[in-house]
Write a structure and sequence with these properties.
Layout (H helix, E strand, L loop, with lengths): L2 E2 L7 H16 L4 E7 L5 H12 L8 E2 L2 H9 L8 E5 L7 H21 L3 E6 L7 H7 L2 E7 L5 E6 L1 H11 L15 E2 L3 E2 L3 H38 L4 H10 L7 H14 L9
Parallel strand pairs: 1-9, 2-5, 2-6, 3-4, 4-5
Antiparallel strand pairs: 6-7, 7-8
Length: about 280
């Protein structure tokens, strides 16, 4: 278990940079997006929380979100004021990293303008920087903080500024290689010090994981339903009415006209727009 403090150990050079970021965001109509990545269990979330309380003295557990949907809600919440630091912590779902990052990419691109207009500080905690959308990785993120263990099991991180981050993404994406270019700052140590109550954080993370599992399961069921419906319509020649009659035989709820229309349009697109679906 980590210790709890609102004044964590922080390298003075990094602390100075974080305070400068806060000033630029709040006083010069900017926003700031940073990425924290590293292997599972290395402490990248803890480090992001440590930096968050320096960048935003009002940072709390309420500012930590685990899904793209909650991230969008937090960004658009009228109570989210200028200079707020929001941590989008996706690392807990590393086993499903690519699916999670697809949602993150979409959310970040969609909200890029709103984050800038609201003058927010956003920390993304991800399994790997290289899976971010190229546009966002190169142009909308300002810094990459790569967290790792030394051979002696010490927690350390290196910082890539905007230019170094771009070169790293272009040179290292193929092999997920962090060796070139060199980091912009010397390696920094950090300790397992929580700046939000660890118990509250773990509880919120567990609840988000359960919710995400249900969400993914529901999404899989939806894809399976649509695939079977397409097979009935395209390959067996079922009408919409016959599809619903079949569902009723198995005590399943019928599909609404809107759902059937959507599935039919998908089929038309997949066929290259040739032909109309049978009504």
């Amino acid at each position: 278990m980590g210790t709890y403090t609102r004044e964590p150990h922080c390298d003075e050079m990094i602390k100075k940079e974080l305070l400068s970021i806060r000033e630029r965001v709040t006083e010069k109509d900017r926003d700031f997006v940073a990425v924290y990545d590293g292997e599972e269990g290395v402490g990248k979330s803890v480090l992001a929380f440590q930096h968050a309380v320096i960048a935003d003295p009002d940072f709390s557990i309420e500012n930590v979100v685990f899904t793209s949907d909650r991230f969008i809600e937090k960004i658009r919440d009228p109570k989210t004021k200028k200079g707020t630091c929001i941590v989008l912590d996706e690392a807990f779902n590393a086993a499903n990293a690519r699916a999670s990052l697809t949602e993150v990419n979409r959310a970040m691109i969609a909200l890029a303008t709103e984050m800038r207009q609201k003058n927010l500080i956003v920390f993304l905690v991800l399994p790997t920087f290289f899976d971010l959308d190229k546009y966002f990785a190169l142009w909308r993120t300002r810094v990459l903080i790569h967290v790792y263990f030394t051979p002696q099991e010490e927690r350390r991180y290196i910082v890539f500024d905007r230019q170094a981050k771009k070169l790293l993404y272009l040179a290292g994406k193929k092999k997920y290689d962090y060796s070139y270019p060199k980091a912009s700052f010397p390696p920094c140590n950090f300790y397992n010090q929580y700046t939000i109550p660890e118990t509250d954080y773990r509880k919120k993370k567990a609840e988000a994981f359960k919710s995400r599992t249900v969400s993914n399961q529901a999404r899989n069921w939806l894809l399976q339903r649509n695939a079977l419906t397409k097979y009935l319509i395209r390959d067996l020649g079922y009408t919409h009415e016959l599809v619903n009659d079949t569902l009723k035989q198995f005590n399943a709820h019928p599909l609404s006209p809107a759902q059937l229309t959507f599935i039919s349009k998908e089929l038309t697109r997949e066929a290259g727009g040739i032909g109309e679906m049978q009504e």
